[in-house]
Amino acid sequence: MKKIILAFDGIMFSEGAFAFARRMNELAPVLVVGVFVPQVSYAGMWSYGVVAGAPSYLPLQETETGDIIRQNIQRFETLCQENGMRSHVHKDFFDFALPELLRETRFADLLVISSEQFYQHLGDEPASDYMRELLTKAECPVVIVPEDVCFPTKTILAYDGSASSVYAVKQFAYLFRELSLNETLLVFMKEDADEKFPEEHNIMELASEHFPMLELFKLDINPRKYFNQWVLENKDAILVSGAFSRSIFSQLLRKSFITDVIAEHKLPVFIAHR
């Protein structure tokens, strides 16, 4: 049984994140841990956890916001019970901060967050930095899910020959054995169209053992201009990517990958790093 953290941002209850976890539970039982992060300054939430001598949380007064969070907790617990899902809630939400969320990822198999709630902070550059920090420092894989989620029936494995991209492929296979049976594209993409598929024999030998409907695909387009358009054409898919290696995928992730793929295209994205 897998342990999944559902992180809810502030007063917003993510229907998409919960729906994704519910479908996972239907395929194989999971333990779902609800984490309700207060909607306060992201900069403050982060710095309080790392400044020497400072408390490990940013206190939040029990106001109307607190009442809404309590209502969302009750809703979460009720939905879990109605759908036969084992669940647990981090109830000390007034004392919660992003460093605490990172600590909890050490003891989880997967973190699920909402793409809309993730994206809404990207207009604020400091907040964007902290959300990217969450991706780089989370100690378990992360799935970023759109609110209007369509549970994936196809898998796109982003591969560039790096250790990070291979690690993400393996982690996805271990965590989503049921989804590994779906149609799967192992996509290689480089700015140099003449570059050969790196370690083709080795990656195919590994991936074909986990993904029986695997197809190797070399994307001969300019990735900076057309990758997002190509991804959009793959309906009902989930994109699997390693995080922040020195690769074209990491550059897309830092610059346009988050805003275009996660926000505009509404595609679930699985990110794993060592």
TrEMBL record:
Domain of life: Bacteria
Name of the protein in its database record: Universal stress protein family protein
Native organism: Cnuella takakiae
